[in-house]
Amino acid sequence: MTNWFGTLFPQSLKLRLMAAAALWALPVLVLAGLLLHWAFLIHLEGQIDAALAANQRELLAASRIDDQGALQLAYIPADPRFSRPLSGWYWQVAQKGLVVQQSLSAGPLGPGALPLLTQMDGIIETAGPGDRELRVFTSHVVLPGADTPVTFVVAAPCDEIDADLNQFSLHILVTFLVLGVAFLIAIYLQVGFGLRPLAALRREIAAIRSGRAERLTEKFPDEIAPVGEEVNALIDHNRQLLERARNEAGNLAHALKNPLSVLAQEITTLPESQRMILGQQVENVTAQVERILKRIRTAGPSAAGHARAPLKGICDDLVFSLDVIYRERGLSMTTDVAPDLAFAGDAEDLAEMIGNLADNACKWAVSRMRMSAVRNGQRLRIVIEDDGPGISPDARAAVLTRGQRLDERMPGSGLGLDIVREIATLYRGSLTLKDSALGGLRVELDLPAA
Asked: Model pTM greater than 0.85?
């Protein structure tokens, strides 16, 4: 059953619960319909049998034996159905095996047209005139003055029972269809109400992932509370691991800083040929260590817990610093960032990403570098553009690869864009390169908004 449900409804717990409810409710509804059908049939047959018994008593009351021993009827049943030809409603009175009198409904058939009916006893169903199914009530009574029993036979058509039963069955079918639809709607609402705590759990986890909350705070039902406790425990564990990793990263940076500085200083005393080779290697080691340390420090919002980094302050600080660095080139640097925009993550990670992108833009810009940001729902799009030579579409994938540089004349290790892309990926973001309206490169950074 579980495998069957998993195949039919692999991704919907609500549909699974509704289908499970429908699978037991459908047989119950069908069984209830059959029981009602059977009960109404018994009721209709009881009504017909009561009518036949009343007519039989009426015939019995009208019967008497004359002085010659012959059967006489003082009157006949008043029910008009016994007068319509072949109506299906018949009566007979027989004596000594011969039909003495019968109802006018037998039509042109004379006495004795229903001889078989006189041979029966009790209530049975059998074929009558025109092969019409009849429900027949037969009784044998010894009247005063008679030496043999007198047979009274009253018959009614079964198709009248069938007509009423079919009409009732149609009503039952329509009623049960309406009940079934109402039941499914009720189950849908009930399941939705029952699963509402899961939706609340999902919202709280999303808030933690986006940096708007640190822990699950809502009190959940007993069945879900253990899951919430485990999630909080996992968050605490990840936070401890992150703190330990960052401490180790700081210790490693401190341990490597002095040796690298000594090596760089000592290299300056070497001959020029050796100084260029060893200096480049020390520079590469420094860049690789810095890159690794940044990756260790970066663990994304899910591990860092609640984090919110205002965007405008970081952008303004970066523009100020870059303006000092590239003052001799006289670059025009502009920002268009609303004060309320914020990144759902660590401020150092955001500064690292924007700093790398803005520095690259300034390196390649001819005269302008522009930075802007907009919010779209729960996402933040940061755009950095320049009016430099740009990057051809064929080469854009290559520059996002670690260590790849299109122009060796420009300073750098070729790790900047790769570091930005990796940090953005940790925050479930993305980095995209496009053509800028300024004539150079347009870099779009998609990140979660706080």
From this structure: no
